[in-house]
Amino acid sequence: MMLLKEVYENAKVVSAKGILITVNEFTDQLPALRPKVLLDVAHAVIRLMDLSVDKIVTEEDKGAPLATAISILTGIPLAMARWYSYSLDEVNDVCVDIRSEYYEGKLYLNGIEPGDKVAIVDDTLSTGGAVISLVNAVRKSGAEVVDVVCAVEKVQNMGCRHVLDKTGITVKTLMKITLMENRVNVLG
């Protein structure tokens, strides 16, 4: 976890359409993501995560490297939600709306079967929009969300509260941060 803290203490903060976001090694691969950082975070998530699940779910954006590493380390299959449909007759895409800090549109999930027990894993929890959409997609698939773990929480955006209010699920996070115009403040 010391590596993740170091990454965020050295992160750049930029404004994108009036929203403060970080640009860093872990989420943006700027500079290139060191394997030891990814493994350090993956092992920390695994220690926090309910490992009795059948599948891991993430979205194809910034959570993909972390969820992939966790899948490889645990042997738990991975299903990745995407922003497009495969439009194949034999693929049952579950479609839900998504509205997150920086994206609004549709989210498509496949690979989840009725009765599956699922852990959702993501890199960052900000407003909670992506996690809420993933929970909705899993439930629409007939599966159960057993756990949600995000590596980093931007506490000023109240994502944990939004997810709890909309889904009844408490999100676990490894590290909490706040963003200021020129730096990231790592809490605790």
Description:
Helix content is 31%, strand content 35%. By secondary structure, it is of the alpha/beta class. β3, α4 and β4 (78-81) form a beta-alpha-beta unit. The longest helix is centred in the first third of the chain and has 14 residues, at 35-48. The radius of gyration is 16 Å and the shape is globular. The chain starts with a helix and ends with a strand. The mean pLDDT is 94.
Residue fraction in strands: 25-35%
Q: Total helix count?
A: 6
Termini distance? 12 Å
The residue-averaged pLDDT reads: 94
Helix share bin? 25-40%
Tell the overall outline: globular
Q: Give the spatial strand order of the biggest sheet.
A: 4-3-7-8-9-10
List the helices and strands and how they pair.
Blueprint: H1 2-9, E1 12-16, E2 19-23, H2 25-28, H3 35-48, E3 55-59, H4 64-74, E4 78-81, E5 94-99, E6 104-109, E7 117-125, H5 129-140, E8 144-154, H6 159-167, E9 172-180, E10 183-187
What would you say about this model in short?
The protein has 188 residues and is of the alpha/beta class.
Descriptive labels:
two-stranded antiparallel ribbon, alpha/beta, 31% helix, 188 residues, 35% strand
